[in-house]
């Protein structure tokens, strides 16, 4: 959690970044943990990890706030029209092949035998990372990545306690 952010000054705020895998908060939800903020920075957060946290918070009635950071996730799919038979929707440039392009020596043209299919963990030019066979993240910047998860913006905040006679 950024010490300069207003969230750092919240009572009970505990930083737990970066999120490097799925996290089970069920033992603490409803036992003093009143707000979960999931932020994707570097490395990028897998959407399944964020989805798991969101589901846990929703079940426990705990507000959930999600931001992607620099990377926006998209889904890789089988698509025979693209090199390697896999494609994803690149938010910057449209439908793209899920391949790592390597220029052929000398003539600098792309050739079929120099276009390997991306594998989980691979990084391609333009800030594209394959997290698993079906999930690709694209570096688009914080403003563009936003807070959408499964078609909804997750920007919940805890209720502010009302002080009587104030």
Radius of gyration: 20 Å
Major β-sheet annotation? 6 strands, antiparallel
Q: Rough shape?
A: elongated
Number of domains: 2
The SSE string, one letter per element, is EHEEEEEEEHEE
Distance between the termini: 31 Å
Mean pLDDT: 78
> Which percent bin holds the helix content?
10-25%
Structural class: alpha+beta
Number of helices: 2
Fraction of residues in β-strands: 15-25%
The overall strand count is 10
Explain this structure to me?
By secondary structure, the chain is of the alpha+beta class. The protein folds into 2 domains: 6-70 and 141-153, no CATH class; 74-139, no CATH class. It contains 2 helices and 10 strands; from the N terminus they run βαβββββββαββ. The protein has helices at residues 47-60, 142-145; strands at 36-39, 64-67, 71-78, 86-90, 94-97, 123-124, 128-132, 135-139, 148-149, 152-153. The chain has a 6-stranded antiparallel beta sheet with strand order 5-4-3-8-7-6. The protein has a two-stranded parallel ribbon with strand order 1-2. The longest helix has 14 residues, at 47-60. The chain is elongated and about 55 Å long.
């Amino acid at each position: 959690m950024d010490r300069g952010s207003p969230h750092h000054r919240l009572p009970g705020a505990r930083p737990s970044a970066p999120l490097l895998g799925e996290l089970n908060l069920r033992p603490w939800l409803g036992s003093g943990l009143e707000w979960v903020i999931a932020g994707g920075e570097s490395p990028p957060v897998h959407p399944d990890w964020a989805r798991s946290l969101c589901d846990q918070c929703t079940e426990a009635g705990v507000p959930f706030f999600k931001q992607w950071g620099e990377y926006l996730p998209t889904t890789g799919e089988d698509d025979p029209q693209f090199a390697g038979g896999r494609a994803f929707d690149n938010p910057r440039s449209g439908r793209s092949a899920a391949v790592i392009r390597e220029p052929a020596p000398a003539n600098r043209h792309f050739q079929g035998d120099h276009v390997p299919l991306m594998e989980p963990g691979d990084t391609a030019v333009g800030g594209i990372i394959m997290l698993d066979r079906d999930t690709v993240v694209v570096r688009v910047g914080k403003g563009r990545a936003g807070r959408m998860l499964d078609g909804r913006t997750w920007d919940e905040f805890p209720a502010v306690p009302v002080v009587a006679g104030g």
